[in-house]
Design a protein that fits this description.
5 helices, about 25% helix, two-stranded antiparallel sheet, alpha+beta
Amino acid sequence: MRPVTERDVRASFVNVTRGQAQRLAMPRDLDARPWPDLDFLGWRDPAAPQRAYLVTETGDELTGVALRLGAPRPGHMRRSMCSLCLTTHTGDGVTLLSARRAGRDGHHGNSVGAYLCTDLACSLYLRGKKHAGPGGRLQETLTLDELITRTTANLTAFLAKVTG
């Protein structure tokens, strides 16, 4: 992903109002992100732990979505798999994240959801820059480029549900 500015990020959101986009918490380390290793920018709101944000490139434009974390599953120790990068985590490493749909559907309260890595670090898990623990990444014969293509396709499908 190419480096982006705060202004670019705020202008990219499709499922919040302009005013809400101006008020959302930005990552403090935006300039220090490992941009060449990111397929999308994702972060959690430190002041509101149930909120998260995701911004990705779609062609020459950026598309951003505001997300809400689902309720934690107490005592959940089974492994869960992220629907974007297919990394498995124990406990609360994968969470149901829901996004209000863009446009009229969103104004009527409709939303879509997906189980994603709670820390939104899918790109780093794919590249081996962050580890999900033993068994977190399945052994696959795909190349890194193929893994990135699959993750990007999964993200594009999720965004199509938000914007469609």
